[in-house]
## 1
Amino acid sequence: MISYLDLMVILSLCAILSFISYRLHLLTASGSVASFLMGVIIGSFGSVSWLIILIAFALSGFIVTKFKFELKRRKGVQEGAKGERNWKNVVANGLVPALVALGAWSLGLQESAAANLIYLTAVSVAASDTIASELGVLSNKTFLITSMKRVAVGTDGGVSAYGTAWALIGAIFASILGWMLLFPWGTVDARLLIPIAMGFLGCNIDSLIGATLERRGIVSKLGTNLLSMVFGALGSLLILSLL
């Protein structure tokens, strides 16, 4: 059961960060509200450490979004008018981690290694996809993942060697950072490969869905993000069940 002190810390932290993000034009008003709600759910039903991991992911996302923003604007591939993200962006990256938090709480498994790894995998997918998307559009050599034919930068399902490299870096970054916060120091083992591998694979699944279902109008960008994160979370659960 979460303590009143922890709840106050979570509420205050989420409120302050959402307000600052709005004032800095990192989030729209709807994005700030969604960010607050997602943060409170994850911090309250998961753990404060889970919330910190989500905040670290959000900060890294803001940084890569602003990186060479004017070049992205000239290419017409920027996020929002000034790089701000709305509630759909927040839900796309926060809903699956929030559902993992609720699921772990309902089963009394918030502190378990399995729950930590499944949550970390979901965030790893989001980090890998966000970093790859924001930095991959800086490359002019983009190929459709299903056919490897050249396509315009920003095309749904488009990938590049540059973006793919950053996808792997994003998964590694999120997984190592999360591991340091969730597991005792000096206890790195082979399980760290689960969020790294599934985070990177989930990012590529996102591109695959984008090139097929999204391009045909069957799912939206929000749906694409959610499906890829569900894939990563369920994939990690399957691997853990087999170990």
## 2
Amino acid sequence: MADTPVFLITGASTGIGAATARQAVETGYTPVLAARCDVTSWDDQAALVQRTLEEYGRLDVAFANAGFGGPRGFEKMEPDAMREMVLTNVLGVAYTIRATMPALRESKGHLVLTSSVAGRRALPGSLYSATKHAVTAMGEAARLDYNDSGVRVTLIEPGMVDTPFFDSPPKIHALQADDVARAVMFAVQQPPHVDVNEILIRPTDQPG
């Protein structure tokens, strides 16, 4: 089992995380799916990585995918929900980066972060957009931190995806979770000397 590469995914119960898990299995990875891990808890994240290493002896890809959105307009979101969003979307990603760093250095592995088109340009009244700007910055910060270690870092920046993330179906022909998962696997399957740092992926019909 120690010879099989291990692919850890947070936010793996539905959507992009679940689709990536399926494609990772098809590609020969052993998946570790953190669907119930509280990414805002350092103890939970540290325990997740420790158990992964105890069970499988290695960690090759860490995909910090857990996150959620909310309404645009700072007055439209309850203060407690705002706090939870920042903790999950920002601190949760930072904890995943920190918790997986020693194991990824050991394996010369790959860190993947889910940002968003909203993490490239500000959206009106969108705290979600601000959190994804933070993830975009963390991706580059992590890449620089990993410099000369052999670890690669990729930001996945999807546009509109038809997943349970949205309360109602998109009005355009949106991306499917499998479309984004293919982008993740494209980056992960490059030769070791190739680091695809960012993949910005939109539906063809998305104007912004």
## 3
Amino acid sequence: MQENQIYSQQEQPLALPRTFISSVFGWMFLALTLTAVMAYFTATSEQLLGLMFNETGLSILGYVIIFSPFILVLVMSFKFDKLSGTALTGMLILYSVLMGASLSFVLLIYTAASVYKTFAITAGTFGIMALLGYTTKTDLTKFGAMLYMALIGIILTLVINFFLQSPRLDYIVSIIGIFVFTGLTAYDMQKLKKIGCSIEQDSESFRKTAIMGALRLYLDFINLFLFLLRFLGNKK
């Protein structure tokens, strides 16, 4: 009896992060599935495409769909403490659907075969780096800080290049982006594992934090996919 209690106490710390990570990936896979379904539905619907685009380019609705996911991320991040688990769940679902609509251009520009190939490579790379982040004993905190600084640089460069339209600069940013989001996958996974070791299971905080963790990994995956697609995608 006493040996069983000791064994149970030893297993509990291991079970906590595993349960939390399982919940994180469950929400992440739900978000990715909604995004993929909505992207396909939008790309194959003339009515939806007609609402998003007009003769001059994006319509007002199109701009709303493109920029509203960014606003949702900010609200979820800065209002995390005040939002309930139900509210965060609804916002994650809405975010995933809107992202699917805004990413429908991928299926319009690139061939289906190259999109599937890039998705498979992204999934493999993401899985390897997530496993590395979960199992490594090396503290990735400083590494993560540098990656987030590089991410800020990428965002600023993309904004500048929106006006410059430099293919060479776009190429350089894409290469850096692949390395940044590959590294961030490992860093974010390690950080989520640490959170899973300390968070109270079956609590409201557990659910909310798992949703935000899923959002973080979702963003790593989507951005890695988009940067890889610039090199591996074949345009129609």
## 4
Amino acid sequence: MESQTPFNNSNDLSLVQPVEQTQLKNFMANVFAYMFMALGISALFAFLFASNANLLAYLFTNRSPNMLGFIVMFAPLGFVLLMSFGYSRLSAPMLVLLFVVYSAVNGISFSVILLGFTASSVLGCFLSAAAMFGIMAFMGYTTKQDLTKFGRILFMGLIGIIVASIINLFMHSSSLDYLVSFIGVAVFTGLTAYDVQKLKNIGSGIQYANVPAAEVKKVSILGALNLYLDFINLFLFLLRLFGGRRN
């Protein structure tokens, strides 16, 4: 009788590998599905409020944000913190609900920003962000290079952007604003590739760990949140750089 080696079961391995790849692709497909759902909801609410003065009137009193307006402005940060830090205690359906509401509130807050730019420049920056995001997502998924060290550098860049933005609230420097926007585009372009690779690695690990379906769904939602934030920030920084202001 022949001794058993891994190569003796090559026929079995040829069946296992496609199954593993299918599981990973399903995981990534779910992540992107949740992300696109969130983007669609945000776009819908941004359009509804930007095109309807009656809806905007709920957020402003004498052209200044009222209490509801301030809540809409700062609520998205609260939703992100709640979803991130409450992950272990929240069920998958609750995370989905929070993600949907967050996307809608975010869209409402974007409507105020978009009103300051021409429709053509908003569309151009959106399409540019979509193209850049798609290219970097593909690179992050297909590259064999480990982007972990690259991710640390990008995270430091993100911290720098936050600090510089806070400082510029007091300085009102157009040069610093331009620099921050340029660095922001570079950072979130890189983070797209990094986050996609990280999610691919998570998806690859899940298929070997017998993770419950509900937990996989929760991971998919948080992954979609990360990619949603990458895309939105990339779009907003491009808009700050190249968006045409309304007269």
